[in-house]
């Protein structure tokens, strides 16, 4: 049995380009979060404490209630508008995952999608992956 990817060949991504440039110019690579330093021992201790305290389960789909409440308060503080944490905030694992999820939820096969380029690397593959479902 062969597996066929739902994502098309994306070619060279912006992350590859930026990582190459960071290496070439001996710069800090902020494009992907590859740290070139050890993890702070305090963070390791906090993670160990959390795991030993039983905090090792999946979070609720929209995010931990305390976290979405804090995000709502941060938005209110910064922008003067407080979104409803129960219906207007969803915590995701990252930007690419959030974009893929929302595109998959909102775009149906046969819909017309216009992507202005240059665009973030995941927009077009996320849209195209819907065509092969």
Query: Which stretches are poorly predicted, pLDDT < 50 over at least 5 residues?
Result: none
N-to-C terminal Cα separation, in Å? 18 Å
Roughly what is the average pLDDT, rounded to an integer? 86
**What is the H/E string?**
HHHHH
Number of helices: 5
Q: Mind summarizing the main beta sheet? A: none
Helix content: 40-55%
Strand content: under 5%
Secondary structure tally: strands: 0
The Rg value, from CA coordinates, equals 19 Å
Global morphology: extended
What can you tell me about this protein's structure?
The protein is mainly alpha-helical and 133 residues long. It contains 5 helices and no strands. It has a domain at 11-57. Helix 4 runs parallel beside helix 5 (123-131). The chain is extended and about 45 Å long. The model has no long low-confidence stretch (mean pLDDT 86).
